[in-house]
Specification:
Blueprint lengths: L4 E5 L2 E5 L5 E3 L5 H14 L1 H10 L7 H17 L9 E2 L2 E2 L29 H11 L4 H8 L3 H15 L4 H10 L5
Antiparallel strand pairs: 1-2, 2-3, 4-5
Length: 182
């Protein structure tokens, strides 16, 4: 889900992908909804919790409920059509201050709109990063934890993103400075 630009047309959330194809975001976009829902859960848990509460009446219809959460999050953070910066590219999300008639009075402002990034590592990320810190390769980590190499890469990428670092050397320095594994 790289190279995505979101925008709103007549109240509908739309997106343009890297190939330039524009489509409406609706509940039939299962893959897009799942990817974004997982990312919101992992990196913006306060926003996710607030949106769960906001749409709790729809919780029994799971695909629709998940769609509502993703749609609201995207409308609040990526709704402007622009050509200067892609909204979602690789692991980087570029939030925008969108036009909102409830700006300044919305109870979800600051929680859902322009949400706080959660920089804490998950338990799974900590397990992977501990082994990486100890010098294990991705393949060794995968074997030790009984997960795929792709899952190892996903956790490393997520940890780097949460911590604002880009390399293993930066991670080692961060872990030592913060006594992460002592």
């Amino acid at each position: 889900m790289d190279g995505i630009e979101f925008f709103i047309v007549d109240g509908d959330l739309m997106y343009r992908n890297a190939e330039g194809i524009c489509e409406v975001v609706d509940e039939s976009k299962h893959e897009l909804v799942k990817v974004f829902l997982d990312r919101i859960k992992d990196f913006y848990p306060a926003a996710y919790k607030a949106l769960q509460k906001e749409y709790r009446k729809s919780a029994l219809n799971v695909p629709y409920y998940q769609f509502l959460i993703v749609r609201r999050f995207c409308k609040c953070n990526f709704g402007n059509l622009d050509t200067t910066e892609i909204d979602v590219d690789d692991c980087r999300w570029s939030f925008e201050k969108v036009q909102c008639p409830r700006r300044g009075e919305c109870p979800l402002e600051g929680t859902v709109c322009n949400p706080q990034f959660d920089s804490r590592l998950s338990e799974a990320e900590l397990r992977v990063m501990r082994l990486l810190y100890d010098g294990s390769s991705y393949e060794e980590i995968a074997g030790t934890l009984y997960i795929s190499v792709n899952t190892v890469k996903y956790h490393v990428k997520g940890a780097y993103l949460r911590l604002g670092i880009h390399t293993k050397a930066e991670f080692i320095r961060y872990a030592n400075q913060n006594t992460l594994f002592k």
